[in-house]
Amino acid sequence: MAVRAAEEWLNACSGCEISIVDMGERLLEVLEHIEFVHMPVIMDHKYYGQLGDQAHLSIPEADVGILTGGIRNEEHLEVALEMRAKCQTLIAVGTCATHGGIPALANSYSTQSLLERYYSTETTDQPAEIPNQGVPEQLERCFALDEKITVDLSIPGCPPHPDTVYAALMGLVKGELPELPSKSVCDTCPTHREGKGKVNKLRRFLQAPQYEAAEPLDHMRCFLEQGVLCLGPVTRAGCGGEKRTPRCISARVPCRGCFGPVKHDGNQMLDMLTGLASNRVDITALPEHASLLRFSGAHCRLRGKDTRQEETCHK
Amino acid sequence: MSQVINISPLTRIEGHASIRIQLDDQGEVQDSKLHIMSLRGFEKFIEGKSAEEVPRIVNRICGICPWHHHLAANKAVDGCFEASLPPAGRKLRELMHTIAHAEDKLLHFFFLAAADFVLGPDSDYQARNVIGLAKSNPELAKQVVSMRSKAKMILEKFAGKAIHPIAGVTGGFSKPLDEQDRKDILQEVRQILDFALYTMDFAKNELFPPYLETIQSLGVIKTGFIGTVGSEGEMSLYDGNIRLMRPDGTFQDFAPAEYADHIGEHVEPYSYAKFPYAKSWEEGFSLDLEQPKGIYRSNCLARMNVVESIPTPRAQQELLEFRERFGRPAQATLLYHWARLIEEVYACERAVELLEDEAITDTHVRNPAEAKAGRGVGCVEAPRGTLIHDYSTDENGLITRANMIVGTTHNIAPMNMSVNQAARNLIHEGDVDEAILNKIEMAVRAYDP
What we know:
The complex is a heterodimer. By secondary structure, chain A is of the alpha/beta class. Chain A folds into 2 domains: 3-173, Rossmann fold (3-Layer(aba) Sandwich), CATH 3.40.50.700; 182-281. Helix content of chain A is 24%, strand content 12%. Chain A is globular. The model of chain A has no long low-confidence stretch (mean pLDDT 94). Chain B is an alpha+beta fold. Among the domains of chain B are: 3-36, no CATH class; 84-221 and 331-368, Cytochrome-c3 Hydrogenase, chain B (Orthogonal Bundle), CATH 1.10.645.10. The longest helix of chain B is centred in the first third of the chain and has 32 residues, at 87-118. In chain B, a hairpin with a 5-residue loop joins β13 (385-393) and β14 (399-405). In chain B, the strands form 5 sheets. Chain B has a 4-stranded mixed beta sheet. Chain B has a 3-stranded antiparallel beta sheet with strand order 1-2-3, covered by helices on one side. Chain B has a 3-stranded antiparallel beta sheet with strand order 12-13-14. Classes of the chains: A alpha/beta, B alpha+beta. Chains A and B meet through α1, α2, α5 and α7 of A and β1, β2, β3, α1 and α3 of B.
C-alpha cells in the first residue's frame, strides 16, 4: 500500500518544492509509492473544505509530513501544529525549516522595523497603514520548526539536493529514517590544501580566485588558503548529492553555509570566528558578522532590539 | 443569509494566498479579496550586508525564479560599485537567465496549469494535478519531466547551483564556459526548442480549442501592460528599457533607473503584498472593474503586448498569429497561457543564438571590482514580470538602502480584479460548487503568481 504524505510550505520560497520536482524521472518512481493527500504547490486540497465553508483549518491524516520553511506568522504556526497533529512522521526539509534559513536574517531586526521599512520605501504611497485585515499576524521573530513542534527528521539544504530528497523519500517508503552526512563541506571539497598558509587577513569576494580555467577543481587552491572567506569548515556536507563535490565550489565560488551547521545545534558564526582566530587570521577585516549566520539565525542565534524577541529568547 | 467563501490556500501557484468572497442576502457577490499572506522583509534585512553578497541572499525571494533575482541584484551591485563586465561574463549571465526562463515556463504550464485544460476545470480535485496528468498521459509526462530536468541540469552542471544560484558575481560570471560544454548545452537546448515547438502546436491544436469561449470570458479585465523592450521595441528579457503601455495601446519608454517616476505602490489593508500602479498616468489607483485607475499587468501576456516584434523567427511567427487572432493589446486573462508558450519558444531560440556565438567561451569572464559608495538599479524581465532591484551602498560597499519591485507584485491589483470579475460572473443566487471555485482560481493561476 502506498505511503500517504502531506506537504506544506511555511516561511519559504518554494525552492525545496522545486528540488523535489528536480528529482526528474525519479519523481515518477516516487509517485508510484507515495500518495500525496495534501500539497498546495501541486494539488488542490483546501484547508476549509473544497467549498471554503468550514470554520477550521484541516489537513488530512498522513503517514509522512513534509514541512519546508520556518515559522514567521500565525498562519505558519497553525499549519505546523495541524501537520504535527495529523502526520505520524514529520520531516523538516530545507535550512529554513531546520535553522531559519535566509529569512531568519530578519531576526537581527524587530518585526516592527521590517514592516515599517517595507511600507515606507520610496515608491510606496504615504501614509501607508500596515495591513491587518484577513492577513496573519507576524510573530516576534522567525522560528525553526523544532522551536515550535517536535521534528522527527531534519534534512537541511538551501535547497536540499534532489538526490538526498529522493533517498529520504524512498527510505521512508521502506519505513527507514535516512542518515545524513555528519561531515563538513571541506570533507567533500576537492580543492587543494597545503596546510596552514600565510593568510592573515581575509579579502571580500570582489575578484576571481586564482585558478586555470582548463584545469580541474583539484588544481585550485582552497578558498581560505587564498584568503577568501569560505564557510566550508562550519557547514554540513551534502550539497553535492551523489556527486559529492560542493555545488558552489564547483562554480569556483566559496561556500556560504547553506546546509547549516555541521551538528544540528552548532553555531556557524562562533565556530568560524574561533577557527579563524586560532589560525591567527584577522577577523576584523570582515565588514560584518551577522552574515556568518545567514542560514542559521533561528534558535535565537540572531537577535534584534525587539522586546518580544528578548522575552522569548531569555526564557 | 449572507455567506463567506474562503478559498484557502490558493493552490498550484507559488506562495501563500487566499480568496475571500462575500455573498449578499440574495447570494450575489458583494465583494471579493485576494489576500497575500506572507512578508519576509528582504528590503530591511539586507541593510548592512556587503553588497557583493546580496545577489546570493535575495535569490531566496523566490525558489522558482532565483536566477532572475540573482541577476537583477548583480546588475544593481555592479551599478553601486561601477563595475564593468567583460563581454563573455555578460553573455553567460544572459544565457543562464534565458535557460531559466525556458525551464520556468515548462514548470508552470505542465506542472501547475495544464491539469485545468487536459483534465478539465470541473474534474475531481484529487486527480486534477500533475500526478493525475502523469497517470492519464504517461508518455507525455515522461517527456515533460525529462525536458524540464534537462534545462535544470544545464544550469546545475555548468553553474554549480540551479536553485539559488551563485555563479553571477560582481563584475561578471564566476567561471568560463568551455568548448565542449558549449557544444553539449547547445545540443540540449535544441532538443528543448523542439519540445517547445511541439508544446505550442499541441496547445493550439488540442488543449486550447475546447476552451476558446472560456478564454474570452474568464477573469477578463481591461488594463495597461508593462515589459522590457530592446532599442527597436523588440522583445528583450535580459536588458533594455521599460515600456509602460496604457489600455488603449499607447505607451511610454523609460530607463530602469527612472522607475520611481513611473511606478507607485499602493497599500491595501488586506494584503501584505503592495499594489504597484502607474503613477505617471496621474489618475490614482482604483480596482473598479468598469473604470480601473492606474492598473497595468506584467508577465508574458504583457510582454506579448508591449513588444513590436520578437527577434527570433519561430516565436515571431507565433506572435503574428497571436496578434491576428487576439489583437494588440490582447486583454483576455487566460491568454497568459498562450503567451507563455510563445515565450518558451523565444527563450529556447535565444539560448541557441547565445550558444552559437563562439565568443561566449572567452575565458575572461570577470573584472575585479572595488567596494564603494554608490547606487545601482538592476532590472531584468523575470518570468512573472519586470523585476527591479535598487540598492545604495556606503563607502565600505555595505547596503544602506534597498527597494525592490518584484515581478508578481505588478499583477496583485489585476489579479484582484480578475477574481472579482470571475466571481461576479460565475456565482449567482448563492449557487457555488467546486468547479466554479476552481474556475475562479484559474483566473489567478493564469498570472502564474
